[in-house]
């Protein structure tokens, strides 16, 4: 009997205690305690001095919070960068250097989560030791809640396969590193955890296609792997690779797989294919909502949706999406509400103040609360809309439309993107499919019907002729991944295909269409 097996019973007992402690926490009390603590910590920084944090921290909470809102404006990333970070960025022969010392958080910020895209400059999100510790606590609480609900679980005697993004970190100055959040997490992981986390080097640094095959072989060879954690489309690709390599069903070859932890994008468009690969009786699924800015929520085993988790170093505020402009940014007069003030059913953009030195920061994610008892919510995507024709179609509605299409066509659509065709006054969809059993006119009709059912403005504009029937291009599954790798320079790990083109004129979806049409793999024929 190995060490992990010997420790299984005491680990289950410890998990049960920690889970009970988590479930007893009061979200509102936690937020009331957190704000003055954050203000005191940052009072001597340049930001804290500018906004009078020392004078706010000792006030009664209601007064403190009201003045905090009055004195500190809501900022987007670009506004925060221009006002507080840009002056610290320098260019040297060694490359870009970014050292934030006592600017918005005390001391030197040691890490930056680097996020980049094809339509916006690279973002550098500050990440501190305090935030790293909070993320660890959140992940541990989630796992303990699962183990408490599953006393027979063998997870304590097993391993986790973590589908990380790029593991490369670059120097941004003495004592400062930048890269994917998963790379920071892996670098700072306690050494005693190494035997329980896969993959190991050199596989973690291999190109994505080699890493994918290597992880599939790991799953087949190492039956101690009990958990897979990653982004839904990449986990799906991994399981398909397992099927292809083994020639057998996933359920047959991975009988010990207990849990799939997923986040980063909605599971809905991929649900039909997961159901095909993993019929009832397979692993459990738990959703979580991490971000470069803070850990925001996770699903407690046995509950249908995620809970907001305002216990991990982030003060939450919320702006109704009606108070966002056409780019998804809060309007100048937008009024944020506290967690205590949220309304069930209302869709909100999330505003965070964190132990990494972000203050009233608009992160770009949206959610809708389902109750105020446990603050359970559904993640409704980024604050981007399909709204070039004023229809305000949300990411959640787009993903549900594809989920409906997949439900009727056996999960054929693996990935997708939709944007505006300004000249044609219509939505331009690119659907990446497995096989060629779907016709573009079928897909267009079903997607149109789904959106008309879920969005009253879209339905009205379609009736009035303000928006024409959607245009659909069907491409192979491989093409969309090739495009993402070759054109965007992003594939696998924590990167995701944007489901809504964020550009004003549909440049990204046009790029994908052009790539598919000009690539040696021909798009599927469409009428």
UniProtKB/TrEMBL annotation:
UniProt domain GH3 middle: residue ranges: 313-372
UniProt-listed InterPro entries: GH3, GH3_C, GH3_M
Superkingdom to which the source organism belongs: Bacteria
GO molecular function: acid-amino acid ligase activity
Domain GH3 C-terminal per the UniProt entry, residue ranges: 397-500
An annotated GO cellular component: cytoplasm
A matching Pfam family: GH3
Protein name listed in UniProt: GH3 auxin-responsive promoter
